[in-house]
Amino acid sequence: MNEHQLDQRLAGLQREVAPGRDLWPGIEQRIDAGAGQSTAGGGGAARYPRWFALAASVLLLVAIGRVFLPSQTQSDPAAAGQSLLAVSAAQELQALDQVLMQLRGTPEEWLDGLGQSGRYGMSAVLLGEAAPVWRPQLIAGLQENQKAIISLRTALSQQPEHISLLRQLANAERRQHRLLRQWADFNRSGQTGILLTNTTNDFGEKHA
Amino acid sequence: MDSIATMMPMPASWSKHHSAAAVTVQATAAVADAKQDQDSLIAASLQGDCNSFAVLYRQHRDRIYALCWRMCAGNRALAEDLTQEAFVQAWRKLASFRGESAFGTWLHRLAVNVVLGDKRRQSRRLQTVSDADQISEATQGAQDWQGGDQDLERAIARLPERARAVLILNAIEGYSHAEISAATGMAEGSSKAQLHRARQLLRQWLNE
Question: How far is CA B20 from CA A53, B3, B33, B141, in A?
């Protein structure tokens, strides 16, 4: 059999096949069972009762508050930075990830927390005037990234199996960690330019 | 449109040119009516009219089932489940259908995502099932097929998972490699390689 003959046979396959049983009752049952959830039926406001929208708004506000507002009960960014710097260099990377997971507050406070250390006191000298220039860029990048993470998590709560969203969320979180890691590395080594030369994100876009 | 045109009765006294033009007009009108019907069915479904959605289901069921059946290597029970799942998801996501493509195209893509999502979950779940078992099950499933090119259907069912998916989506359903890449997450080059492999295996098996 040559390529042409195979093409002909493939083209001759039926595009429609009837299932062996009636599938509609099962579909209808599931549609009815999910009538109160997000379904097409009911359209617009009827699909999302007012109480549901209200509850979702409250949850969103709480989530945003937990991310952006400093909490006294949560770990203090400065203390988090200190605890990170207390561990040995070999464990630093792993510890940084743990610390980042616990961080609350604003990106500015994250940077302050990661920058405060007697051990890294020399960075204050090495950074010179460069840090104030980079800092706003880094903070803007972190804030923008954090917004993307929140949006992606919200979208994933509705479509948990969406592979593209999952991939984007993983990339955004990886980028957030990397930015903060770079800041910590910079503070430690005083390698000027690290934040400016390695700013391509995981979506392949250049970040200012 | 051609198939509709050939079904139209034509008076023998009409000139060839006249009759062809008239049939084309009638066929165009028939297609427009069908689209209008479909639009009104979608609109009614969005308002929660399950009966309208049942009509949409009946219009598209066989094409969606054929896709699921082939992608599941002829496993009838699984194909029925996935067909149901595709229509349940279509009901839930109908509000996101913006009419940028035909409803059938939108539904088909949704069904492809449902099947591929299930395959990903299966591959995580069924690591212990051997290839031989899968091929045996697939070949048995393909024997359920009661029409068309049974040898070819059986051979398609025997193909390795990824090669089969690419062959079905490209050679039978008409998806481009870029579209397959977007849906499956594999690179376009891999998609082309899988298609080449699938065709090679089919030719080999069908020549035996």
Answer: 56, 13, 20, 45
Sign of CA dihedral B128, B130, B135, B140: negative
Task: Give yes or no for a contact between A107 and A146, defined as CB atoms under 8 angstroms apart.
Answer: yes
The reply to whether A32 falls in a domain is no
Answer whether residue B153 is part of any domain.
yes
Identity (one letter) of the amino acid at B71?
M
| Across A185-200, average pLDDT | 45
Chain B environment of A34 (Cβ under 8 Å): 88, 92
User: Is A10 a domain residue?
Assistant: no
Q: Residue B70 domain-assigned?
A: no
Domain contains B7: no
Question: Which of A8, A17, A39 should be substituted to probe chain B, the one whose Cβ sees the most B Cβ atoms within 10 Å?
Answer: A17
Can you spell out the DSSP letters for A164-178? Answer: HHHHHHHHHHHHHHH
Chain B residues whose beta carbon lies within 8 Å of the beta carbon of residue A47: 95
Interface test with A, best of B60, B70, B88, B181 (most A CBs within 10 A): B88
For residue B168, being part of any structural domain is answered with yes
Smallest Cα distance from A175 to chain B, Å: 21
- As a whole number of angstroms, the distance between CA B11 and CA B24 comes to 15
Domain count, chain B: 1
Per-residue pLDDT of chain B (208 residues; tens, 9 = 90+): 344 333 333 334 444 444 555 555 555 656 565 666 888 999 999 989 999 999 999 999 999 999 999 999 989 999 999 999 999 999 999 999 988 889 999 999 999 999 999 988 877 655 544 444 444 455 555 555 556 788 999 999 999 999 999 999 999 999 999 999 999 999 999 999 999 999 999 999 999 8
The number of folded domains in chain A is 1
Predicted local confidence at residue A188, as pLDDT: 59
Nearest CB among B57, B91, B149 relative to A40 is that of: B91
Q: What is the ipTM of this complex?
A: 0.76
- Is A204 domain-assigned? no
> Residue A118 belongs to what domain range?
49-197
Please report the residues numbered 145 through 184 in chain A whose beta carbons come closer than 8 angstroms to any beta carbon of chain B.
161, 163, 167
Q: Domain span at residue B202?
A: 130-208
Q: How many CB atoms lie within 10 A of CB A208?
A: 7
CATH number for the domain that contains residue B145:
1.10.10
